[in-house]
Specification:
Layout lengths: L2 H22 L4 H18 L15 E4 L5 H11 L4 H4 L30 H15 L5 E6 L6 H12 L5 E7 L2 E2 L2 E2 H4 L5 H7 L3 E6 L3 H9 L9 E6 L22 H19 L1
Parallel strand pairs: 1-2, 2-3, 3-7, 6-7
Antiparallel strand pairs: 4-5
Helix pairs in contact: 1-2, 1-3, 1-10, 2-3, 2-9, 5-6
Length: about 280
């Protein structure tokens, strides 16, 4: 899939996301939208050996959504990839659905239950270390939130990853600068994240997570044989792609009314038409 096709798919996933969250009347839509481009690139360009017919294929690359409250973005991505049926995704928010507000292993394509912030990187370290011990080639990708960087367990995992030379581990921080209680730099200052992880022995790069070309370029440049774990600081916009949500903290968790849903869908559909030409 080329970059233009990835952009188009991300926009279609974005439209689906807005509609699903609107119908469910719940969801962390701001963070969903900020990480959706990266998630689309991971599943349709970066990660290898993903097979909806065999979700547990031994050679598959692994994905851990550490910021598990943004599971709606993962659901629409899994639907687009063929792991999740549309009729199943449409049950989100309904009684008896297998879909909940955080990832669970009952859902095909999801590796671990996650969402207790600070745990995902430790799980990813374990997966990457297991691959090394077993002589396997699969890689592990972990998507974290920036507010999550206030959790001490993240740094225990970061030290372990360096100790064990886990060059098969890639962590991404969705750096949208907003968490549930406001700006990250007011709640618990994080900068300089790059210097922090470099001091832990990681290879660190930064990218514009709102720009698919930069996302693809950054992932393609990773050296998986340099004996260092990899961190990508993905600079994004909370609520990306919906004008009235962009950069607004209250949309960390927000429920759209019918008029807002219609406006959001129209904005996205206009971009889809432009991409199609």
């Amino acid at each position: 899939m080329n970059n233009k096709e990835l952009v188009l798919l991300a926009e279609r996933n974005r439209k689906r996301l807005v509609e699903v969250v609107f119908r469910a009347k719940a969801g962390h839509i701001g963070g969903d939208l900020s990480c959706l481009n990266v998630m689309t690139a991971l599943y349709f360009h970066v990660m290898r050996n993903l097979d909806p017919e065999n979700p547990k294929a031994p050679a598959r690359d692994r994905f851990v959504l550490s910021k598990g409250h943004c599971v709606e973005a993962l659901y629409v991505t899994l639907e687009a990839k063929g792991f999740l049926k549309s009729e199943t995704l449409d049950t989100l928010g309904k009684f008896g659905s297998i879909l909940s507000g955080h990832p669970t292993i009952e859902v095909p394509g999801i590796e671990v239950n996650s969402g207790a912030l600070g745990h995902g990187l430790s799980i990813g370290v374990g997966m990457a270390l297991a691959a090394k011990m077993d002589g396997k080639d699969y890689r592990t990708y972990v998507l974290m939130g920036d507010g999550e960087q206030g959790e001490g367990s993240v740094y225990e995992a970061a030290m372990a990853a360096h100790k064990h030379h886990l060059d098969n581990l890639v962590a991404v921080i969705d750096r949208n600068r907003l968490q549930i209680s406001g700006d990250t730099e007011d709640v618990m200052p994080l900068e300089n994240i790059k210097e922090r992880y470099t001091a832990f022995g990681w290879e660190v790069s930064e990218m514009n997570g709102d720009d698919m070309d930069d996302i693809v370029r950054t992932f393609d440049a990773i050296d998986y044989h340099n004996e260092r774990p990899h961190l990508i600081v993905s600079h994004t916009t909370k609520g990306k792609g919906v004008s009235f949500m962009e950069g607004v903290a209250k949309w960390h968790h927000g429920v759209l009314d019918e008029k807002q849903c219609q406006q959001a869908v129209e904005e996205i559909e206009n971009r889809i038409k432009q991409l199609i030409g």
